[in-house]
User: Fold these one by one.
Assistant:
Number 1:
Amino acid sequence: MLNKTNLARIDLNLLVLFEAVLEERHVGRAAARLHVSPSAVSHGLGRLRRMLHDPLFLRQPKGVVPTDRARQLATPVADILERTRQVIANAERFDPAKSVRRFVIGAPDAVSAVILPALLVELRRDAPGIDIGVRNLVGQFDTALKELDERTLDVALLPLNEIPNRFVSRTLFGQEDFVIVRRAGHPIGSRLTLARYCAAPHLVVSVSGDPHGMVDQHLAKRGMSRRVVLTVSNFLQAMAIVAESDLVAAMPRRFVTRYAARYKVVVAEPPIPLSSSPVLAIAPQVATTDGGLTWLLEALERSARTSFR
């Protein structure tokens, strides 16, 4: 991308700025993240545009969108910054009490909603300068692994049985399965038979809006089906809607254990066996040499253990 002569004139902070704008898709939010003014970000983008001979980001009503050239540069820039961060991290022992790093975690909200309260307690106590960004991942597991490769995610918390060798993982929950949730006084009655379950109106959590999920696969094997009346993009929203409607939903057991009393919903075992898998904290192999990522994986493990004490 740049020859040796040009490197003498390059400010590495411009690549940090590029990364922030690319991830935030907004000049103001990027400025807040970098603790600089929006005008400083705009000025830096101007320098980058002249250096790389491309607009890089185009203004839109709600922010900016990257050009094709910016998308092409995303991975090599992320690699440059990650290698630089590794050099610094290896040269100076990571100290959570002094660190001001920001980590980005991807997880289904049913997982993050269980783990985050305990993680925030630890951050407040032991790592007050560390910031966390959380992105909701529901049914986007291949995308999450790709984003770990591209370093746009630091850690992904996913229900997976196996991961590729290029990643490391820590087990947060040994097995996570699903239970059926409905409001108190639901007309389905107290005994949840398979026939009653199929006849009820259903809610499915799906980021894409696709109403077909693992429950439908299990029902199809028995020659049965259900009607999905509503899809929503996260489990907390689903819980709130189920609590005030006649919809029923399958939700992860630990999430329901933590939030069922708050929403006053009734929990039942599913009338058919549903899939279960461990929930893993997954990071690129670089985590083994990055003291900050190693600390984060360990903090997530501790938070998972303390979430149900």
Number 2:
Amino acid sequence: MSDRPGVGTLREKPLHAALKRWYAEPGDLVEQPVDGFVIDLVRGDTLIEIQTRGFSSMKRKLPQLLDRHSVRVVHPIPLEKWIVRLGEGGEVISRRRSPRRGAAVDLFSELVSFPGLIAHPRFALEVLLTREEELRRFEAGRAWRRRGWLVEERRLIEVVDRLTFDSREALAGLLPDGIPQEFTTSDLADGLRRPRRLAQQMAYCLRAAGAIATVGKDGNTAVYARTEVTS
């Protein structure tokens, strides 16, 4: 990995920096300008972007880069998260494990920004399943859902696993076991044990990628089925 200072590192968050260090291999170029954009890692002919959240910010960049390059987006999803509360002086006043556990299917809440790109021959999405710390600091009158506790930063504890999605078939592999041949987003939510909102996002992404198709309606509810895979 090149140790040349990058133009995008001054305001880099700890989680992003840690994942970049973890992912980088010897010979990678760091924070390289390519076609008017600054790329996190350049590995041979492949451009690698570490995106911790907010895929919408990449909607303009990715189609332009894919015209000439292979692109891999790396996205962390915390299987386990520890909530760390900091005092006014930065000291740790409490640390507890969040009851919510993440899963690979959570990627669909971000992938809605460009679901069709999964079918692009030069695009891949890699999900890193992680353990993280989320540091929070109190500020009165802010973040009312968290009672004034603002998320200051996220820190990587470890990477537990990694999954690559580079085709509609790979993405369809996230459909839950036992899902009916024809199904609704309610069936999907039940099978995933996730809110229906995420099931709707998943169905939208899979349909845009060509992995499922709308085959009818049950009242006002769309009914989906897997598409046939042709070789």
Number 3:
Amino acid sequence: MTQAVKTSTQSRDWLRLTSLIFAALGAADALYLTYVKLAHVEALCRGVGNCETVNSSPYSVFYGIPIAIFGLAAYLLILALLALEPQVPFVQDYGSLAVFGLALTGTLYSAYLTYVELYVIHAICPYCVTSALLITGILVISVVRLIRGPDGPAND
């Protein structure tokens, strides 16, 4: 293996691994928020933000389903795509694009929810902010991965 190919492979692996970590953290965050919502317990905000106001608002559900469940599903799907990418040819070909689509949708929805928190509810949930940052990080990485393509840049 030439040095350029080795460096390109390491770069792609690092980007995929970082996305995997972000998605796992996002899934844990969304799982906790799902638990808080379904168990009707108060989130551990420890004086940072106002989780209860956000979690009890009408914006915390969509057709009776907690928003956190949708986030959890998205993070788990991203995790599955990233985990299967090295092993499944179809995911090798289209996984990066699918992760981009999920991350773009999640980032746009998170931006909407952040707007709602700031200007409608007037309360911030640090878990929601964390999720917004993680999905945005996944989006940025997915754009880099798409630009580089499956083999990375020629000079990498």
